[in-house]
Amino acid sequence: MFGVTCDSSLNAKAHPGAALVSIIVPCYNCAAFIAHSIESALAQTYSRVEVIVVDDGSTDNSAEIISRYPVQCIRTNREGVSGARNRAIRESGGEFLIFLDADDLLLPHAAQVGVSALLTHPECCMAVGAHNLISSEGHFLRRRDKPVRLRDYYAGLLRSNFIECTSCVVFRRSMVARCQWFSPELNGAEDYDLYLELARQYPIYCHSDVVSEYRIHDGNASRNSEMMLCSTLRVVRSQARYAIGAPYRIYSYLYGFWFWRRKYGRQLTRELVFSSRSKGVTRDRWKALASAYPVGVPIALVGRFLPVQVAAVAFHIRKGTGIPDMHSDPRGAGASSPPNSAAFP
Question: pTM of the entire structure?
Answer without folding.
Answer: 0.82
